[in-house]
Amino acid sequence: MPEDFGRKWQDTVQPRLEIQGLMRRFGGREVVSDVSLSIAAGQVSCLLGPSGCGKSTTLRLIAGVDMPDQGVIRVDGRPIVDARTRVPPEERGIGLMFQDFALFPHLTVSQNVAFGLPRHAPDRQGRVAELLERVGMTRHADKHPHELSGGEQQRVALARALAPRPGIMLMDEPFSGLDDRLRDDIRDETLAVLKAEGTAVLLVTHEPSEAMRMADEILLMRDGRIVQSGAPYTIYNNPVDLRAAAFFSDLN
Ligand code: ADP
Ligand code: MG
């Protein structure tokens, strides 16, 4: 496949998520500065950068739990945030997954997955069954979270987040609570499920190895800015500067 295939394909398709000039200031300091990005359906972009560089703040602005001081956010071409617009979080069609995802302890696996679906949604049970199948948890459907391993709980959390078919999924270091042996498997499985669902994904991580493994595109962030973006091996082979090179050098 030619190296620029992804880029050309992306340019011809309406982006699912499009952000222009996003800025957020706390106490006079710009924590997010002029962030622009674009993600198509089925594409995984990784916002990669050291702790404190502004990744989680960026995600919160997109999710709608915080408001930018400047910038435009569009979903399928429709502005959800601009100078005049602020669509509430629950109407954005955006799913969220965080590290300390919590399943409801008193609900079964099926009930946890069904939780995000309207009670009278058509084929609610069918959707739950389809997702449990996708994440390989069908035989655990009637168990409670405390009967599951960490990796199994993670699979259920993914199914629950995907249940309402969000067009966009924001993931903030969702794998950092898992032990090393499990993590690669869960990453690969998660990626496969997200691709099968055609979701546009913005995955936040401070680990270069995670971004290299999962991303179609890496957005390298530093001090609130995206300093370089591109396909993983393009960035790895052509780091923008010494700091970027050093950041990737401890890749294992
Ligand atoms: P990351 O997720 O990349 O580790 P964050 O987005 O959490 O970084 O934080 C970026 C910077 O913004 C940090 O210096 C953090 O202390 C600061 N920050 C985040 N939220 C707030 C807030 N509500 N008020 C003031 N400062 C904040
Ligand atoms: Mg963070």
UniProtKB/TrEMBL annotation:
GO BP annotation list: quaternary ammonium group transport
Keywords in alphabetical order: ATP-binding, Cell inner membrane, Cell membrane, Ion transport, Iron, Iron transport, Membrane, Nucleotide-binding, Translocase, Transport
GO molecular function, one term: ATP binding
The organism's place on the tree of life at top rank: Bacteria
Signal peptide: none
Domain (ABC transporter): residue spans on this chain: 17-248
GO cellular component: ATP-binding cassette (ABC) transporter complex
Chain ranges passing through the membrane: none
Name this protein carries in UniProt: ABC transporter ATP-binding protein
Organism: Rubellimicrobium rubrum
Entire protein: shown range: 1 to 252 of 376
